[in-house]
């Protein structure tokens, strides 16, 4: 079967970051062959730090000024709060972009709407509509690349196992008030938006991820959020892992590094 997600596994985190940087550059080039922008969404967790390697930040081929960066999920906290995914991305990546480069356009949540997660999600959806559907109406936005993490329970974005949000098929962005991973109040891209992207990347490193990767790949019928993305988006998905996380997991299609 060729429509399985691909897994690229590396011996160390540094090599994983290098491989990821190379992949992101290819995704950027592919995006520029379609339009003059590179529109991506990023998650929180360990992903921003793994992404923000010198191989990416200092790479002269990165055309930062053409990047539009959105958040795959965000916690309903002020942007300077330690839990903010925007704050995390800013400190590990945005603040490190060489000063001579022009900066990417970044789309944080509206801090004035933190009291009402539905309003917060609706406003973020409007932000997406302005970027992805300003001229024509579209059913779903098409990100050039979505960069995701994988939680120890198989969640991704703020889409958690067994949660009713997994069935959301109208909204592009949805609120969640009962996230099992703190903080509980968040907004998230919905599953159809994630699987509609041109490319979807998962980053999962460390032996602590091994058990959940086994379930995701070997028991997709359990319907964990990461498995749902794998099944819906198929070979648009590439997993970047280290060897410790993927060793002994069956049912994966190994990609060449
Ligand atoms: O903001 C969040 O909480 C994340 O977007 C979340 O989905 C994260 O990506 C996973 O929990 C994996 O986190 P780790 O990479 O830290 O394990």
Structural features, described:
This protein is of the alpha/beta class. The chain has one domain: Rossmann fold, CATH 3.40.50.1360. Helices cover 32% and strands 18% of the residues. The protein has helices at 13-32, 47-51, 54-57, 85-92, 117-132, 191-196, 210-218, 225-233, 243-246, and strands spanning 6-10, 38-42, 67-71, 73-75, 105-106, 145-149, 173-176, 186-189, 200-204, 237-242, 253-254. Strands 5-3-2-6-9-10-1-11 form an eight-stranded parallel β-sheet, sandwiched between helices. Strands 4-8-7 form a three-stranded antiparallel β-sheet. The chain is globular, with a radius of gyration of 17 Å. Bound molecules: 6-phosphogluconic acid (6PG). 6-phosphogluconic acid (6PG) binds at residues 43-47, 73, 85, 149-151, 155-157, 181. It is an enzyme of class 3 (hydrolase). Belongs to the glucosamine/galactosamine-6-phosphate isomerase family. 6-phosphogluconolactonase subfamily. One of its GO terms (molecular function) is 6-phosphogluconolactonase activity.
TL;DR of this structure?
32% of the residues lie in helices and 18% in strands.
Structural class, by secondary structure, is alpha/beta
The low-confidence parts are none
Q: What is the succession of H and E elements?
A: EHEHHEEHEHEEEHEHHEHE
Could you say which overall geometry the principal axes of the C-alpha atoms support?
A: globular
As a percent range, the share of strand residues is 15-25%
Report the count of strand segments.
11
- CATH names the topology as Rossmann fold
Q: Tell me the number of helical segments per DSSP (H or I, 4 or more residues long).
A: 9
Give the CATH class.
Alpha Beta
Q: What does the main sheet amount to?
A: 8 strands, parallel
